[in-house]
Design a protein that fits this description.
With 298 residues, the chain is α/β, with parallel strands linked by helices. 31% of the residues lie in helices and 13% in strands.
Amino acid sequence: MALGSRLRRDLGQPLDPALRRHGLLARPAPDGRAGICGDRQVGGSISFVPGGDGADAKWLSDDTRHLLAELDPKPDQVTIAINTNQMNIMELMTADDIRGTSFERPDLARTYAEMTVPAGPEWVAEHLLRLRANDIQPHLQLANIAQLETVERLVRRGIYLGPLNITWVAIGGGFDGPSPYNMMEFIRRVPDGATLTLDSIQRNVLPVNAMAVAMGLHTRCGNEDTLWGQKDVRATSVEQIEQIVRLAMEMGRGIADAKDARDQYRIGTWYDDVDDTLARLGFPPNRKPDQLGFLMHA
């Protein structure tokens, strides 16, 4: 896939050098294994590279992004942003991070600093509807708890009825920064029935991934997020994946096969009504008319 990636089941075989990024670990299965994602995922941003000198870095039009629900061959997942938001990817980057890259050009850095994510309520609802109609699962890319709360309301109002696969995108610049305090509160607020990936940018990627491995969450790495392994040492996407595999093994987290990971993501699964979805995801039920007191989990 151009924007997602696929990973071979057998780690004894060489990894595909075309990989750009990959969520690696899933919440542990009952036998303690974590999962390598074997699904076909397409990034919902498609591309926000400026179209030429002087052009803005911006996401493609609403109609163009809706076409992701009609791809052939069909992906298993399409990532989706929730709520229009600033996306200044330059805010956490240092001079060392961007050395030798086009980000050293002030004009290009400026346009990426001014980028926003267009994901208003009408577009989100329509996109979720189209994805379900074509049996494509959304993978939610969330900047903060406010967006997580919006997702919960989408479920409570019946706009989205399916598994919750969430990435916490801690890249700063309008998104949460990679502070452990932000991270732990976000983890606390994610319902038990969801899967959660932790994501960051540049040299924050490995420390955030290490914490994700320790807690049995998904990780994400690759050259879309960082060019670096250790300080001043470039690392390819494949080298970053292999690094996380080594880290997982050191922590006693074996690697599950692609089928296990797809099962944890519940690829191809949908729910029929709001009450059932809330119960499966681990949210308290909706309040009934005239109901008093605290709401309890189903």
